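To assess whether ligand presence alters the predicted conformation, the chain was also submitted together with S-adenosyl-L-homocysteine. Input:
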Amino acid sequence: MSKKLYIKTYGCQMNVYDSNRMEDVLRPLGYATSDADGNTSANTPENADLVILNTCHIREKAAEKVYSDIGRIRILKERRQAEGKEMILVVAGCVAQAEGAEIMRRAPAVDIVLGPQTYHRLPELLEKARAERARGRAPRVMDTEFPAEPKFDALPAETRSRGPAAFLTIQEGCDKFCTFCVVPYTRGAEFSRRVEEIEAEARRLVAGGAAEITLLGQNVNAYHGLDESGKTVGLGRLIRRVAAIEGLQRIRYTTSHPLDVDQELADVHADVAECMPYVHLPVQSGSDNILRAMNRRHGIDDYCRAVDMLRRARADLALSSDFIVGFPGESDTDFEATMRLVREVGFSQAYSFKYSPRPGTPAAAMENQVPEEAKAERLAELQAELNRQQLAFNEASVGRQMPVLFERAGREAGQISGRSPYMQAVHVIATAADAADSTIRGENKARGNGNPDGVAPAYTGAYTANITGVANFTGVAVAEIISAGPNSLQGRLL
Ligand code: SAH
Ligand code: SF4
Ligand code: F3S
């Protein structure tokens, strides 16, 4: 009988990828996150033999949540132990890396602490924890090293389908050291995986049903991996290689740094049909003074140049970004510059945060911290503008026809939900016959890959669909957009 595994994932997509990979590592030991029918909701922290919290350290709130979750799980663990059942509690991810020793001190219920670069060692660490327990001691196992051998070499091949939209980490870590950010400390130095290794993993994901792959990295466009001839290739070249995989219909990549946008990458948006017309390109602030204090290594001019390069390659490109308000020293004038930049560039969606001082980062020690009220006011003003732009972008989609990758059943009866090429959430009500018909015709209709005027080249990949009733429909089908809200579009299948 399989042992029950429950993983809670906080933070970014790379953590989602890591959680999936931890599952792969644990499967040979008999652990599964789902029951025999593949039902993942069957596993809860209450009945789990092994609980993993895969944590995020990016902002204070994210890190605090981990401690309150540990507190909750401690009670469940004690209850299980009283019933003579085992539970092992693992804290993984970026909080573990940054505050491993403190977690051990503050939270005796935690058995194992491990960082983002050591989870391939989970089997040995579990072994150690069990041995400790067998001796009647509380296990206190910790591994937050940055091993010289990358974990990717030690990870087993993925063994489970990741569904229609899958993540694939191609690059990890960061050498840029923005003064507000913990990532260079929690994830370590920049590292790029080899091209062949990525290609092989992408092929397995496609064989497992992935129609879309999102290539991941903290600085994904700083990718510089070796190909089989020993040559270093950039992200643009890598995307071309992955796009050539039979059956793969869509490629995305995230997160990009403005300084690492080059012509080779922009060209991919012009002539690789699988590459979706959406780029997440964080700018953080619209003020050169603040960007300098952030050690972003780029100015507003550089950012606008990168945006132009991408938009020249693909006129309909949708752009998203990250913003921090209230960075130390940010004046009203600096903030006004951010608002101006937002109005000038125009975003289809964006994430914005109040600056959160992180222990050990240079900005946390800066003297001119911005008061909480000013942060809150600025965030509200910025978000109002970003929301306005997002709604306008969505409303402009009404009446258009676009290929949508349907990933799951929606909340309403007969509803299926997915993403437009521009990352908008799209919901349609469909019958199984509608879905089948639309998918078959999709290949002709979708010429232009999200661009109804057919400017960009057509998809090369075949449309795949898996129809056993509407609720199980996944795949690309063409929808006409009939209405738009701030966060999603409603459409009907064609
Ligand atoms: N590598 C990406 C971002 C990684 S972190 C890049 O270079 O842009 C994701 C986002 O979290 C950042 O873009 C930033 O907007 C936000 N963030 C990071 N540290 C933060 C902090 N200390 N306070 C508030 N927001 C922060
Ligand atoms: Fe953090 Fe800056 Fe690196 Fe992005 S580029 S991960 S914000 S240090
Ligand atoms: Fe958070 Fe670590 Fe990702 S700090 S955002 S989980 S890299």
